[in-house]
Amino acid sequence: MSQGEPPTRSNDFDERLRRLRERTPSEDKVVPGPGLPSRTAVGFAFRAGVELMAALLVGGGIGWLLDRWLGTLPLFLLIFFFLGAGAGLLNLFRAAKEMNRDD
Amino acid sequence: MTDLSTGQSPLEQFAIKRLYEVHIGGIDVSITNSAVFMLVAIALVTAFLTLGMRQHALIPGRWQSMVELSYEFIAKMVRDNVGSDGMRYFPFVFTLFMFILFSNLIGMVPFTFTVTSHIIVTFVMAAVVFIGVTIIGFVRHGTHFLKLFVPAGVPIFLLPLLVLIELLSYLTRPISLSVRLFANMMAGHTMLKVFGGFVVALGVLAGWAPLAFVVALTGLEIGIAILQAYVFAILTCIYLNDAINLHH
Question: ipTM of this complex > 0.85?
C-alpha cells in the first residue's frame, strides 16, 4: 500500500480477488462437517465389505456369462471368481492407502 | 406384493405402488410412489436453489447462505479432486449431489418413500457416472486411456493377469458405488422400523429403551443421509479425475 499511486477502489478489489483465487485451491481440504462418521473404523469396514462383495459379484457374473455363452459351465466361473477376489483385494488395498494418506 | 404391502413387515416401506397406470407400447411406465418422490425431490431442489437466490444480494441472508454453501462445497470438491479442468463437469456433479441429498433427506420424513433405497435407482445413477467417465476418458485420451489398466513396472509374464484384475477392478466401480448408497439407506430405514416395532411390542414398561435408541438412530440416519450424498459425489469426482488426468 505504501508504494506507487494510491489504489483505486476497482484495482484494489481485483488485486484482492486475485490473491484470494490463488490461495483457494491449495487451502483447507474438503472434509465432511464435524460429527459425520466418515473416517471411522466402522465406515471403513463397511466400505471394505462393499468393495470385496462388489468385486466378487462382478467377477462371478462375468465368468458365469462367459460360461453360458461358451457352454463350459464351471471353468470361467471359477477363474473369474478368483480374479474378482484379486480385484476386490486390489480395491481394498487402494482404499486403505487412500485412508492412510488422508490422516 | 401381498405380504409386503399388507403385513407389518419392516420392509413394507420399500414396496413400489402404482399410483397412476400408464402403458406405452406394452411397457409399464406407471407413475409409482417412487417416481412421485423423485419429482418431489427435483421440485424441492429447484425451489431451494431458485427461491434462495431470488434476491441475489451481495451480502447473503440465511437461505442464500445455505444455497451458496452447497454450491461452493461441491465446486471446491470438484476443483480439489479433479482440477480446474474438471469444472466443466461441475453441473453434473452438483445435480447428482443435490438430488441424492434431497432424496435421502425426504426419506427421513415419516410416511415418505426413500427413492435411494432401491438399488435400481442408485445403479442407474452409478451406471451413468461409469459410462460417462469412460466416454470422457476415451474422448480426451483416445487409446491412451487404456494405460489406466496397465500397472507400471510389472514383469511381462504377469502383465496379462494384472491387466485382467485391473479391468475387473474398474468394472466393479458402478456396483460398489450403487450398493454403498442403496445398502446404507435400506439398512438404516429397516433398522428404524424394526426398533420402532420393538417400542410397540414392549409397551409402556420396557419400550423406553428402544425408543431412546430410535431417537439416536434417527440422528445418525440424518448424518448418513448427508454423508452418503457426499460420498457419491466425491467418488464421482475421483473417477472423473482418473479419466481426465489418467492416474490412480
Answer: no
Q: Output Rg (C-alpha) for chain A, integer angstroms.
A: 26
Q: How far apart (Å, rounded) are the C-alpha atoms in residues A83 and B234?
A: 27
Whether B161 is in a domain gets the answer yes
Domain span including residue B146: 72-245
Q: Which three cell numbers stand for residue B154?
A: 510389472
* Sign for the pseudo-dihedral over CA of B88, B93, B96, B101: negative
- Enter the pTM of the model: 0.81
- CB-based contact B183 A50, cutoff 8 Å: yes
Structurally, chain B folds into a number of domains equal to 1
CA distance B113 to chain A (A): 24
Interface test with A, best of B70, B150, B172 (most A CBs within 10 A): B172
Q: What is the CA angle A72-A74-A77, rounded to 5? A: 100
Q: Does B222 touch chain A (CB under 8 A)?
A: no
Q: Among A29, A32, A57, whose Cβ lies nearest the Cβ of B227?
A: A32
In a domain, B3, yes or no: no
Joined together, the cell numbers standing for residue B194 give: 424394526
Could you give the 3-state DSSP secondary structure of residue B27? strand
Question: Is B187 an 8 Å CB contact of chain A?
Answer: no
- Best CA proximity match to B237, nearest among B86, B102, B84, B100: B86
A83: contact with B, CB 8 A cutoff:
yes
Tell me how far apart the alpha carbons of residues A44 and A32 are, in angstroms, rounded to a whole number. Answer: 15
Whether residues A36 and B164 touch (CB distance < 8 A) is answered with no
Domain boundaries, chain A: 35-102
CB atoms A87 and B176 under 8 Å: no
What is the tens place of the pLDDT at every residue in B33-85?
999 999 999 999 999 999 988 888 888 889 999 999 999 999 999 998 888 88
